[in-house]
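ping. complex inputs:
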Amino acid sequence: MLLDIEHLTVRLPGTARPVLTDVTLRVASGEVVGLVGESGSGKSTTANAALRLLPGDATATGRITVDGTDVLSLTGDALRAHRSRTVAMVHQDPRSALNPVRRVGDFLTERLRGAGLDQRAARARAVELLAAVGLSDPERRVRQRPHELSGGMLQRVVIAGALAAEPRLLLADEATSALDVTTQAEILALLRSLRTSGGDRTPGMLFITHDLQLAAAYCDRVYVMYAGRVVEEGSADDLFARPRHPYTRGLLDCSPTLDTETREIRPIPGRPPSLADAFTGCEFAARCPWAEAACETWRPEPVALDGGGTAACRRLPVTGAATATATDTDTVTVTEGSVR
Amino acid sequence: MLARISRRLAGLLATLFAASFVIFAAVYAAPGDPAVFLAGGRDKLTPEKLELVRQQYHLDEPLAEQYGRWLWDGVHLDLGRSFKYSDQVADLLAARLPTTLALVAYATVLFVVIGVGAGVLAAVRRGSWVDSTVVGGTTLAASVPSFVSAIALVALFGVQLGWFPVTGGGEGVGGTLHHLTLPAVSLALGALALISRVTRQAMVDAGAADHVEVARASGLPEREIVRRHVLRNALGPIVTMCGLVMAGMLAGTVVVETAFGISGIGSLLVGAINTHDFPVAQAVLLLMVTGYIVVTTLVDLLHPLLDPRVKERAA
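pong. complex structure:
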């Protein structure tokens, strides 16, 4: 297993609940794994944990291994080597990821220098990388400043920087969210093409997004996070066709689709919990249409589903039944009405 | 870029013009009559003699006329003759200026190297004892007036230890450096607190930028991050503040020059004001203002090099 996060719990001082609670997540070589959730659900913290980039006063329990290396115990040069060679991150906003006063080429060469190239070789490789991510006129681009390039071009530069050291694991943290739709499609296609290029050393990718539809369409497997906990995990097709956890269902109901005539857009009631909210039971109970009194005290734990995957919900038989009838949209409304 | 420079140059000339009038009027309005001094003091002074002196030095003309004459001569690089020394003012300045410039340059090197260095150290080790020591030490240094620190330095390094000469300007490069060390140190001490504090704050602000965290996430060595991402981006405020402090020093060497018996333009100005030596006082003040404006203009022109986005906006 390439990335293996086991029972990771991260606490910050002064907060009522952990930032991450008992997160277990795996990414295999060559696999694209989606991580979906609302803002503040702990998606980015999970990705940062794989780089051991947690706030200085955070305490983490559990285990993170990348390619067999225990990440949480890394320090000093070993940690730098891990960040520069094994794992690379593509950030959400390319404009703030590059130093505005330095040249685009410097962004790449400083990473290549870290991977052991000399200045001349690094410069040549930077031009190659920019060409590889589909930037036109790469010779000129390396001498330009970030403010002279568009957002999509900059995201290509950032991806080129992430590829500079040929990492084993790519973390894409909302990598396309700040881009317009056509650019988004180009970047997605670019990220996808990287998987087919590597051969034996094909990198795995953790694709973080708030867009469940995108994750379902783009990834092999998807994890759904809510309030720092993985609430459902499964293959992208299953998750999209038969969402089992009420939150996953809620996420799908939130988004408008073309093929519905009768289904209305139903926002999830309430708001995402902040770090100041403490829970005795299921974090989603207050917003859940299927919640019972017992949910308030039930500690969520992953329950294995019969088509593979897990969901952390004690009402699975009921939610599963609701999903089974979801093929006919008219009856969904009836079923939900009766449950409420 | 050329349009930018010429615009700055026009602004510089306009400022100089305004400053020249203020300087002339201020010296003109200063209490005391230079004619009395020129005539050799109040003893044996007859009104006729006084009138003669006034006519000779054009002191009987109205302010506007005197100012016009002075400005016209000044534009033709004739700053007039000193009342006291009867020498060309330009010669007096030429004799005194190098010492002051050397003193300011020496002090600038000291406060830039030590001040920026201390500020970087404080920012990198924020919240540690290094940080508190830098802030405390530089604040203490700044709260001591330069004439007090000058006396303390002389007492310790000049008299007790005998490492440095106590007065004078020295001969040759080595001698000058040797002689100017104590004055430069006492001049630089006051600037250390400001420079190190500005450096520290600019570094902290620049260090909070997202791209610094991105650089850290990609495993760059911390030294590289501090140098190429934090300090590089913090240079704007640091260079501006260093320029302003250096420009201020050009006009602020009076006390230190007096304390160390250095004959620079600071002590020349004090002497000229005490003896109502109009042309010298005016020329020195104008020179100080010019120095200030030139330094600040240079700093402004430097900014597009530090941050390429500035160039974009100006164009």
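The two ends of chain A are 42 Å apart (CA to CA).
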